[in-house]
Specification:
The structure is a homodimer of 344-residue chains. Helices cover 42% and strands 18% of the residues of chain A. The first copy, chain A, is of the alpha/beta class and 344 residues long. The N and C termini of chain A lie far apart (79 Å). Chain A binds a DNA duplex (16 and 16 nucleotides) through helix 2 and helix 4.
Amino acid sequence: MHRVSIKDVAREAGVSASTVSYVLNNTPTETISGETRTRVMAAVRKLGYVPNLNARSLSSRRSNLIGVLIPQTEPGREFMFSNPFYGELLSAVEYTARQRGYHLLLSGTQEDQSYLSIARNRGVDGIIIVGTYPGENLTELKRMDVPVVLVDSYVRDEDFHIIGIEDREGARMAVRYLIGKGHRRIGFISGSIRENGVNMKRYQGYCDALQEAGLPLEKGAVYSGTVDYEYGLRAAEEYVRRGKAQSAVFLTADVLSMGFVKGLRQMGLGVPDDVSLVSFDDVYLANMACPSLTTVHQDIREKGRKAVEVVLEAAADREKRHTEWILPLRLVERDSVREWREGE
Amino acid sequence: MHRVSIKDVAREAGVSASTVSYVLNNTPTETISGETRTRVMAAVRKLGYVPNLNARSLSSRRSNLIGVLIPQTEPGREFMFSNPFYGELLSAVEYTARQRGYHLLLSGTQEDQSYLSIARNRGVDGIIIVGTYPGENLTELKRMDVPVVLVDSYVRDEDFHIIGIEDREGARMAVRYLIGKGHRRIGFISGSIRENGVNMKRYQGYCDALQEAGLPLEKGAVYSGTVDYEYGLRAAEEYVRRGKAQSAVFLTADVLSMGFVKGLRQMGLGVPDDVSLVSFDDVYLANMACPSLTTVHQDIREKGRKAVEVVLEAAADREKRHTEWILPLRLVERDSVREWREGE
DNA sequence: TTGAAAGCGCTAACAG
DNA sequence: CTGTTAGCGCTTTCAA
């Protein structure tokens, strides 16, 4: 079972392999007569020829492949499972890439540096990395001369492109909103708060809003765990255990909120009657939830689209070392917040 | 910026390129002295050599790449977006593949045959296709001598491997359960019901259960649209418009149920008080929903794991032309069904 | 306007 | 136990 190669096409069309290559690639430096062009195309069609992209990338150093790295929350844990955000982002990335004629090489990020293997081994034209922290071994990546786009990361490096959102501002917006509704004691629930991580920025935004309003920062109002439904549940338990001191809570992800709401309900508490809540992301879940979640909306599809665009632009023009796109956020009011009256 | 190649390593170690290759691949037919082996490894480490997998696959005809094709519900629509099922499945596939040293080449399936491009162009070692219908141009695939695993498809072909579930039986189980709870008029809500498609099987299971119980099949009890939240909403509207004739409904996907529940609520109806409901999949949504959904549970992670295993086994042993794995289903009772008393 | 030839980085007989 | 040699299928100077 011999796969038809460029030589077969060449023979069939009575031209050389290079001519076939020129025709197929529309090589701008070469000019092919209309006659041979049609002859070649006919042969291609007749033989059902499809170029071998591995071979092509071997000689041309372009692969039409974009590497996508999605974080694994924990070792041994599947990615994306815990948060629909990743699924939505990946959809958008895949779709955009495909429109542009690119395929995706997908990998979860292991603790070790599977970063590199995907990039170096496969000769991808660019890499999109979602949510890395500073200090993870990105140094090797830099040497590899492949455009890298960091999505939702606070690693700042003049050799990496950035797609992000105003995490701090978004959180501030959320908490301000709660304050505007009369809440005075507001909790903060998130995944792990790491130096220069997204949750840290959101925590800062939370602090900003409280300070602006002259409200005290309470140690006991902060809950930090993992970004998943289960932790939302546990946070609710913990909230009750700590005495239900806050009348409202800001959660850094909609999945967390889902768990939190459920956990509260299991203990006989309701949202927004007993606790008001604003969360973050506005994945489709937020709208499905009951109550539907008031949340900080980010344009996930745009994020994915932009990531692909930037990586491809950078691949086309290697002079572009660093670009930064911070996408706007807005608060979407739904049903998880109620007014809090003084002295209640 | 010269990428270090096998030749560089060979030079550094004072051996030939093939020796390096033997060492790196542990080629079983060749036997390398411990001394050269360590020398080669030292050179590899020193130079930071990483093999170019494109080149390798070009000459060895193995790519360590698995192609994954996920359906786009509609042209121009992103995959996975509409149903978390795909995300969960993909997670499991990616995770398993990575454990085995494989990367994933991901593509949504376009209307046309992007099937082929991914397989032929890239020299993947195997392909996992999710949810195709008979008649979609799979014939070309057959000629390509690449193992193909069809997940959730009723295409039956001795050259394709199959991973599926007992769709018909699962649906029957669900509807029987409702009947057991006293319901006599039961609706069916699904995506498009196509010949030999998953929804058709589930529809048949629905009919089976009704017939067993001697209940009539009502035309007006069947709702068919797309598998997404929005259609769930619309189905709820339609249900009310048609007069709320059924006391219970079987929906073929949890996302649909999410929409349906929401739609009902918007019109002042509650689940399970006004309408009981059983759905299908048991994605994480099912548990998050309120009420949490009584649903037919399928083991999505196992499905993904199995798909990878089968495709790799088939790649290793091309004699294996056709294997079939039908995974078990079970009903998970939660809170979306209530007893229906005679004459209510 | 086209073709010959070299080479991308690697593997795999085959010799030795 | 190791090296030589010939490709894998394609692109890309360079020459005609």
